[in-house]
């Protein structure tokens, strides 16, 4: 029997870890990684492959272009077209979990405001463009702008409407300070949890194996699963 290759939509606030873990999960599953940010940059004509740092350099330009709905509507049109036409995709997006019809697996990555500030700061590399307060301002601005857009156009609240997600995972407790070492340790601990949960939701791993794996894992990893739909 063939293993289902149902598409997976990641969602979460800025610097929650969507891009890192969507890429790692795509590699784990042998899926194709799809970056909504990269598609948006193509629409805007901004030439860069460094999607993790683009907001540090092009925030004003992007937000000005998104002041109307045309860019977001075209982005969502392209993503929906792709998701409906292909299987075996990991979609690193904002809205697809809400607007794409089933079958699709929806995973929300939760991360509190402070941990996202820290991850944002580290993601700049050296030397950093922004200090921690500047990172806080950037991610708050980006999240509020995106939230307002979705409330106006789709009537869902990015900050609160998570009931439809098949899994809600958190990495808040896995980063202890704003340093590359702490960030890498958080990724090391969180990635296996994301992959285990995805394998379960795809029908590759039974619930009993998920339970046994988490019980035998580092206790911090077990704490990363806030909600998970099961077959049992």
Biggest sheet strand line-up: 2-3-1-4-5-6
General form: globular
Q: What do the pLDDT scores average to? A: 91
Number of β-strand runs: 6
Instruction: Give the low-pLDDT segments.
Output: none
Sheet-strand content, in percent, reads 5-15%
Spatial separation of the terminal alpha carbons:
21 Å
Level-1 CATH class name: Alpha Beta
InterPro entries: P-loop_NTPase
Organism: Streptomyces chryseus
Pfam families: Cytidylate_kin2
Protein name: Cytidylate kinase
Polypeptide structure, described:
- The chain has 232 residues and is of the alpha/beta class.
- It has a single domain (8-228), classed as Rossmann fold (3-Layer(aba) Sandwich), CATH 3.40.50.300.
- 53% of the residues lie in helices and 11% in strands.
- The chain has ten helices and six strands, in the order βαβαααβαβααβαααβ.
- The protein has helices at residues 18-29, 36-44, 54-65, 70-85, 96-99, 113-123, 132-154, 180-201, 207-215, 219-222, and strands spanning 8-11, 32-35, 89-92, 105-110, 167-170, 225-228.
- It has a six-stranded mixed sheet with strand order 2-3-1-4-5-6.
- α1 packs across α8.
- The chain starts with 7 loop residues before the first strand and ends with a strand.
List the helices and strands and how they pair.
Blueprint: E1 8-11, H1 18-29, E2 32-35, H2 36-44, H3 54-65, H4 70-85, E3 89-92, H5 96-99, E4 105-110, H6 113-123, H7 132-154, E5 167-170, H8 180-201, H9 207-215, H10 219-222, E6 225-228
Parallel strand pairs: 1-3, 1-4, 2-3, 4-5
Antiparallel strand pairs: 5-6
């Amino acid at each position: 029997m063939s293993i289902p290759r149902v598409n997976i939509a990641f969602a979460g606030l800025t610097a929650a870890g969507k891009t890192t873990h969507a890429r790692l999960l795509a590699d784990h599953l042998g899926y194709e990684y799809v970056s909504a940010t990269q598609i948006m940059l193509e629409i805007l004509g901004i030439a860069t492959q460094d999607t993790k740092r683009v907001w540090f350099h092009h925030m004003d330009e992007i937000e000005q272009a998104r002041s109307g709905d045309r860019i977001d509507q075209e982005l969502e049109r392209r993503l929906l077209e792709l998701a409906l036409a292909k299987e075996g995709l990991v979609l690193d997006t904002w809205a697809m979990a809400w607007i794409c019809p089933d079958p699709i697996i929806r995973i929300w990555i939760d991360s509190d405001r402070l941990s996202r500030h820290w991850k944002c700061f580290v993601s700049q590399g050296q030397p950093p463009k922004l200090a921690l307060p500047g990172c806080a301002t950037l991610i708050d601005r980006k999240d509020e702008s995106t939230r307002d857009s979705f409330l106006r156009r789709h009537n869902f609240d990015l900050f609160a409407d998570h009931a439809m997600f098949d899994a809600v995972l958190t990495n808040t407790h896995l980063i202890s300070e704003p340093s590359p070492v702490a960030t890498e340790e958080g990724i090391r601990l969180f990635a296996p949890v994301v992959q285990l949960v995805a394998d379960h939701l795809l029908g590759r791993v039974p619930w009993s194996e998920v339970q046994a794996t988490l019980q035998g894992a580092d206790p911090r990893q077990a704490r990363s699963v806030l909600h998970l739909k099961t077959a049992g």
